[in-house]
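Re: the 482-residue chain
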Amino acid sequence: MGWVRAGLRGLHRVVGTGIALLVVLWFWSGAVLLFVPYPNLSEVERFRWLEPLQMDGCCVTVESVMSQVASAQGIERMRLLIVAGRPLYVVHFLDGTLKSLWADRGETAQLDAVHIVRQGQTIGAGRSLETLWDDQWTVHQRFDAHRPLWKVQLHDVEGTELYLSSMTGELVMDSTAFERQWNSVGAVIHWLYVPMLRRHWDLWNQSVWWLAAAGLMTALSGLVLGILHLSRERGHNQRSQFSGMKRWHHLGGIVIGAVVCLWLLSGMLSMDHGRWFSRAEPTLDQRQMFMGGPLAPQDIAVSLEGALRLAKPETPVKEIVLTKVGGRSYYVLRSDPSHQVVVSADSLQASGVEFSLQALTQAASALFPAGNIMKSERMSGDAYYYSTVHNPRSFPGLRVVMDDPAETWLHMDMQTGQLIELMDRSRRVYRWLFHGLHSWDIPYLLGHDGQRKGLLLVFCVAGLLFSLSGLYLGIRVLVGRS
């Protein structure tokens, strides 16, 4: 037993000394993230930037555009919007790339940043403009299709910075000075979002995974040692064998050690990406099967003008999305995130404000042709489909439960008609091990966000103080005073 204790002591001391500062920073930055989330463009903000569509003199047909931009990857959807006073088609391909064409002439769009900025509805007189590939706030791969980006500094009271896509002219990101300052000591530290590292996704992924694993090994070995070092005196009373800072570190580990271990484990699982559990994101093939094949000219039988006449939207339309679900094509005429009309693009049919349960269920069944649908239900939120600041979801959603061997659940957005995620048994376990343990997304606390944040803050502060004691002891080891 002595050699086990010696091994654990060596592991805890050596690895803990190396990882202690990072664990301290993780607790601090985690507390910041509770109240200041990472800058992100909401749908409300995106629509505020868009101009109402003017259909006079517009547009070349979507069929001609599809024929012009035909790609081996296939078209996933098309959008029509106004950019710098002109109608623009944005074609989204299944591989994530996109292409923009002026809708009034059908020619490839050459966008002018200065002209677009002048047209922006939210931009005042004081501003500066620069072109960049990425920076601290736009290093994520979701911006890849829009690079290079145009960064606009408004020089307003809030210190607002806007990022525009050079491919579509749209607003794709915004932030304020307050968000940037707090996230520099929050999300950037917590996620190791240093551009030099984050630009290399595989390296960043492996780095965070192994650092979290090292922290977990330190915490686990310390928890075991802490229990072993409890001594019994006078019956069943237990006390620490140490004195001074070691005593506080020992007792603190007994009290909060299990929580620290669970947080480090769930933090490591945030970088799972298919290592131990299945992935939720639909693959390209699955998205294509859900659509019933890529969008093609033969899918369109109703013109844009015909769809507008049939829909008769009550508010000005700012974006028209052409998409395909279950082998049928649809126009989605959007005025803002909460006002839209869905119109069939392959036949003149009555419109609705969302995709029908029947259409989405039929599309879902294409992913499991040999299986049966156990049930389908609309969702306004539950333990597996819910919205948070860090992971926003639109409502209503649709869940389709399949009878395949993995008991897969499919989640769909009834507003956009998109397949959001596949949750098999493995993924549902992951939901609890990561979201449940890391951010405490459990049913009661999801409905009482103030209490959830309060509890998390208390444990973050306790973890911070505990890890500071470990950092102090680690420094003593390094300088040879222990």
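The first strand starts at residue 75 and ends at 83.
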